[in-house]
Specification:
Layout (H helix, E strand, L loop, with lengths): L6 H14 L14 E4 L4 H8 L6 E3 L4 H10 L5 E5 L1 H12 L3 E11 L4 E11 L2
Length: about 130
């Protein structure tokens, strides 16, 4: 399925991403996350990443090896993401090796990209 990406579609995806991707108030501090992980091939995920203008970002289209390197150099802080299931499973394993643990996880509808849903998640350093 091909999604037409114009201004209206991008604005809609931003509204859907912001409304559907919110985590409980305690899970998202005022401080931007150390890293935002997204997939530029998915409209909702792109819109999600745009919601964190001050955070470092990692596009999953760059591949898993690049993300593993990035996680290895990541200092303390939380990692936020909106990805597909298989990417989330891979990320959890890589992050555990770097001392991060999942703190929140939920499904989010993804009507613009034609996917049934995506996974909105958060990770932080073990305390």
């Amino acid at each position: 399925m091909r999604v037409r990406l114009d201004r209206r579609t991008l604005l809609r995806s931003g509204a859907l991403g912001a409304a559907g991707a919110a985590l409980p108030a305690g899970a998202q501090a005022m401080v931007p996350p150390a890293l935002v992980v997204f997939d530029s091939r998915v409209a909702e995920s792109r819109a999600f990443a745009a919601g964190f203008p001050l955070a470092a970002r990692h596009d999953l289209a760059l591949g898993p090896l690049a993300l593993r390197r990035r996680l290895a150099t990541l200092d303390q802080g939380r990692v936020e993401g909106l990805t597909g299931w298989s990417d989330w499973v891979m990320l959890r394993g890589a992050a555990r090796g770097q001392g991060l643990r999942p703190t929140a996880e939920r499904t989010v509808a993804a009507p613009l990209s034609g996917k049934r849903h995506l996974f909105r998640w958060s990770m932080a350093a073990r305390s």
